[in-house]
Design goal:
heterodimer, A: mainly beta, two-stranded antiparallel sheet, 27% strand, globular, B: alpha/beta, FAD/NAD(P)-binding domain, D-Amino Acid Oxidase, Chain A, domain 2, 3 domains, eight-stranded mixed beta sheet, 10 helices
Chain lengths: 67, 391
């Protein structure tokens, strides 16, 4: 996996996430998937485009500075 | 390794109908239907409304235990709260999706389909002989199965499509972010569905009340986040319920995405068919997808069984699925999408004025067609859209 040059990447708050899957098809590099029903954002694939942030019906996604 | 003829991923309406249809068309086929959740039909991520004619193609709602309510009335609510009651007729049904989905899955099992719940697909690769090798995980165990045809009925996530190299991504403007409560103690007409739109209510979408019984209803909304004021769908819904139904008890909660786009460009690949939400087979105007999913599932199951019988599950053979779907409903969705775009350009003031105008028509004559005709008179720029729709 190529390292992202993004300065910030999306992270999910699993205590708030309802595992509805809405954000998966919104992600241009397909960095989001469900693993055993838990949402995973691959930090190394996320480009920091923010397209998943506002559409989350419960606000469970947020941007954090990239590691 | 277990060698299947057909693997169906996802036991919603599309998947269960597809599995039933494949097995019914060719009883000798080994058909496996898997569902990631521990129960078919739960959690419910749906407002549960369905039209009468479409439903009857698949099941008789009369007295069925999976029906919650018969609906005979539609009430539109303009942005300024003006209510418009449309002329009464047989409109449709509010389902109990937990029971309905289980009913469809049980029909598939009775036909000879193998159903496994709590099992998810985690990836797939092409194997020798044109088969897919699909990794399954469930109950602490992992296995790989072979399948001649994989039917992806896995909803908005659409992972099967992704693994097959199909583009199932959705532009943000075509994703409705939805939140819904099950509400008790609500004073609404239990035979009517209520639809309200408006920039303050649900920008780019609408709010709904779908009664499940007297005093009980699904109350929710969908919005396009790009048009929101920064609040999420749940926050908009909380405000709407607090304003309209302040005494209602919110006893259940769900969220989800509704793709209000058009069918993806390619719904098939070598040994793969996508059906239902996974292929964006949703009416982009209403957001309805249950009957669409069942119709697509029926086509997918039929196509898979015929292709296996002919020993040709190549992309070329499966392409007929896509063209048949487009003729059946996909081309209509393209028209609905254009109407949606035209309606999005109209202001709240327009709808407030239209509501007052059409309320002067006697209720028994206040049909959707007459309401639309009034809209055309007031807004001639809609006429080219209407022409495209009816031509």
């Amino acid at each position: 996996m190529p390292r992202t040059r993004a300065t910030a990447v999306a992270v999910v708050d699993l205590t708030n996430c309802d595992r509805c899957g809405l954000c998966l098809p919104l992600c241009p590099p397909e960095a989001i998937h469900l693993d055993l029903s838990d949402l995973v954002v691959e930090a190394e694939t996320c480009t920091g485009c923010r397209k998943c942030i506002a559409p989350c019906p419960v606000g469970a996604l947020a941007m954090v500075p990239a590691a | 390794m277990r060698d299947l003829d057909v693997l169906v991923v996802g036991a919603g309406p599309a998947g269960s109908v597809a599995a039933w249809e494949a097995k019914h068309a060719s009883p000798e086929l080994d058909v496996l239907l898997i569902e990631r959740d521990r129960a078919v039909g739960a959690p419910v991520r749906c407002a549960e409304g369905v039209g009468d004619a479409g439903l009857r193609e698949f099941a008789d709602p009369g007295g069925a235990p999976w029906v919650a309510r018969k609906i005979t009335q539609v009430i539109f609510i303009a942005p300024d709260d003006t209510e418009v009651r449309v002329a009464q007729r047989d409109v449709g049904w509010i389902l109990d999706r937990t029971r309905f989905d289980a009913y469809l899955a049980a029909l598939a099992v009775a036909e000879g389909v193998d159903l496994q719940v709590g099992v998810e697909a985690t990836g797939m690769q092409r194997g020798p002989g044109g088969r897919w090798h699909v990794r399954l995980r469930g109950a602490g165990a992992e296995e790989t199965v072979g399948a001649r045809v994989v039917i992806g009925a896995d909803g908005v996530e659409a992972m099967v499509g992704r693994w097959a190299g199909l583009d199932t991504r959705v532009p943000a403007r075509d994703m409705e972010s939805c939140a819904q409560y099950v509400v008790q103690g609500i004073d609404v007409d239990p035979d009517a569905i209520y639809i309200q739109w408006g920039d303050r209510v649900a920008p780019g979408g609408y709010a709904w009340v779908f009664p499940k019984g007297v005093g009980v209803a699904n109350v929710g909304l969908g919005l396009v986040a790009l048009k929101s004021d920064g609040r999420n769908a749940r926050q908009y819904l909380n405000e709407w319920i607090a304003r309209r139904y302040p005494r209602a008890a919110r006893t259940g909660y769900t969220v989800g995405g509704v793709i209000v786009h058009t069918t993806i460009r390619k719904t098939y690949a070598d040994g793969v068919l996508l059906a239902g939400d996974a292929a964006h087979m949703i009416n982009p105007l209403s957001g309805g997808g249950i009957v669409n999913a069942m119709k697509a599932g029926r086509l997918a199951g039929c196509t898979a069984a015929a292709a296996i019988r002919e020993r040709d599950t190549s992309e070329r053979r499966l392409a007929s699925y896509h063209s048949t779907w487009m003729k059946l409903l996909g081309d209509d969705h393209l028209k609905y999408y254009r109407i949606k775009q035209a309606l999005e350009a109209l202001s709240d003031d327009f709808f407030n004025g239209l509501a007052r105008t059409v309320n002067k028509i006697p209720q028994e004559k206040r049909t959707l067609g007459r309401i639309f005709a009034h809209a055309l008179v007031k807004h001639p720029q809609l006429i080219p859209v209407a022409a495209r729709f009816f031509l």
